[in-house]
Amino acid sequence: MQRRFYEELSNARATAAKNSVSLSETTYRKLLSDVLKAKKTAKKEPRDYWLLNRYDVMVIGNKSKLIYPVREGVNAIRFYVPDSELFDVLHEAHLAVGHGGRDRTLKELSPKYKNITRYDIELYLQICEPCQKKQKGAKKGALASPISVHVVR
Hints:
- The chain is mostly helical.
- The protein is 50% helix and 7% strand.
- It has helices at 2-14, 25-40, 46-54, 83-96, 102-109, 118-127, 129-134, and strands at 56-60, 63-67.
- β1 and β2 (63-67) form a beta hairpin.
- α1 (2-14) packs antiparallel against α6 (118-127), α2 crosses α3 (46-54) and α5 (102-109) crosses α6 (118-127).
- The longest helix has 16 residues, at 25-40.
- Pfam families: Integrase_H2C2.
């Protein structure tokens, strides 16, 4: 299931726009190092301000994670997820909502993660075998057979 998800994701990412929210592992690492460098730089460039407005770094244990900067009055920490961890995050959230649909899974993920899109969730749901089994069968037409009408004169 995981292999199939990443194959489909790879196909989708190949046609994704340059400004897409998806983060490959290399892009994620580069952003981490760029944000750390921008925080330490005394004379900031416009890109440094752009980076610091959109990204921050949080160290958990000995691992650095990319997060959305915490604003005043907002206590929630929203993480950025690299594509390499996307399946695990989606799988965990989808099971947490009891194989709920797209909207329930999105509602579970939105407060915790910044860059998970509806499309990513829909892709996962297409691959989730229990969800595919419980999908309703093809709907039949409104009329099973034609109705004959007799006109009496």
